Amino acid sequence: MTPGASPSISPGIADAVHGVDPAAVLELLPARPRLLALGEPTHGEDVLLDVRNEIFRHLVEREGYRTIAIESDCLMGLVVDDHVTSGAGTLDDTMARGFSHEWGAFPGNRELVRWMREYNDGRPDAEQVRFAGIDGPLEITGAASPRQALTGLHAHLTAGVAADLLPCTAKTLDELLGTDDRWTDTAAMTNPSRSVGRTPEAGQLRLLADDLVALLDAWTPQLIAASAPEDWHRARLCGRTALGLLRYHSAMADTSPSRMTRLVALRDSMMAANLLAVVERGPALVNAHNGHLQRNRSSMRMGGPPVEWWSAGAIVGAHLGEEYAFLATALGTISHQGVHAPPPDTVEGLLYALPHPRCLVDPRRLATALAGSTPAPRVSSWYGYAPLDPAHLTGNDGIVFVKDTGHGQVSSGSGGG
After folding, report:
1. How wide is the angle at C-alpha 281 spanned by C-alphas 276 and 285, nearest 5°?
2. pLDDT per residue over 254-310, tens digit each?
């Protein structure tokens, strides 16, 4: 396709585009997926969160989805889950303590939590919608101490198995962990020598974490019988998170050229493990960046050569097959960030030329309508926005297109992506 030229569109383009009717989402798919993922190309835009909320509400109320997961700290998300299922805490406190990356400040997230609590009020447990964070306790600037995850796992095992089966005491864990600021030193992200991830203490903690998780697995029947099912699920979450954090801290201490690739791949691997655990409990919905949910490899450039890794969506898709579905979201303009009308030879430009302010696109029909030509890739003028990759157009099960974000809210936090 000639750069700058409008693509030649067949009359079939009309068959590929519909209004954003939540009821039409599942009509794009051959069967109802166990996990339906809705991506976004940037974080924090009000209109994208409103569209997400509308789609997710419909799928919960009409299609029986029972968990809503988002790209936020998995341990902090337990605060939100407690609030929406039992009413624990106030909404203000939940938004302040239950989200990472400062995303509790977004009105769309607040509205989602408020609606989930309202929906669950008075419903039996089996009919309630649950909340889950899928991200590790990570920020772009660093990672949390593994203390909360390790001690949570140890406490669950202490209450459920004989003391002589435990590989260590709580006191031993505390001594090996030391002060939390050793783990959370933000300088370690750019200076591996500041990381504690490969100290003798960290190495011993990795072995103990592995032993604790193995004990949890080996005594599953007794542990489930001795406690509420939710306690066992949370112990498993603590185990996954402890191992993931210790691996991540070890990678932060790495000085090889592949250090950044390891870090981003570990993060998505943690997300994938959390998503697979979520879908064990029933049909689920997830909202995160397109780059974390797409089926193809993700990539980014951070001052050097491109870094590539397999996204959480690619990993989960490999496990679930057709039970995983991915809807990408695309944008026309983000005017308050200097992202103006897209070039007409891009996917976004093609959709921007249509009269719909929002639309749902069947990417396979769109590809057919393009008569075999591949649109040009859009180049983002703002680092916080990632356009669609036209080379992988049909790797999406659907595309939600929003023509303009208006004056949405953008995260000032350091996390996400």
Report:
1. 65
2. 999 999 999 999 999 999 999 999 999 999 999 999 999 999 999 987 767 889 999
pTM: 0.94
Mean pLDDT score, 234-253: 98
Neighbours of 193 (CB within 10 A): 8
Instruction: Enter the tokens of residue 347.
Output: 């996917």
Residue 102 is encoded by which pair of tokens? 């400062």
The amino acid sitting at 331 is: L
Question: Is residue 133 helix, strand or coil?
Answer: strand
The token pair that represents 141 in the structure block = 């600037």
At 372, the amino acid letter reads G
What is the rounded CA–CA span in Å between residue 245 and residue 247? 5
Q: How far apart are CA 40 and CA 18, in angstroms?
A: 19
Portion of the chain with pLDDT greater than 70, in percent: 93
Q: How far apart are CA 340 and CA 346, in angstroms?
A: 13
CA 389, 413, 73, 302 dihedral sign is: positive
How far is Cα 273 from Cα 250, in angstroms, rounded to an integer?
19
Provide Rg for the chain, Cα atoms: 22
Where residue 47 falls (left for φ over 0; alpha for ψ -120 to 50; beta otherwise) is alpha
Long-range contacts of 378-383 (CB under 8 A, 24+ apart): 378/342, 378/343, 378/346, 378/347, 378/348, 378/349, 380/339, 381/338, 381/339, 381/340, 382/334, 382/337, 382/338, 382/339
What CA–CA distance (Å, rounded) separates 243 from 180?
17
Could you give the CA distance from residue 111 to residue 99 in angstroms, rounded to a whole number? 14
- Residues sharing a CB contact under 8 Å with residue 59, sequence separation 6 or more, in sequence order: 22, 25, 26, 36, 65, 285
SS3 content of the chain, % helix, strand, coil (to 5): 50, 15, 35
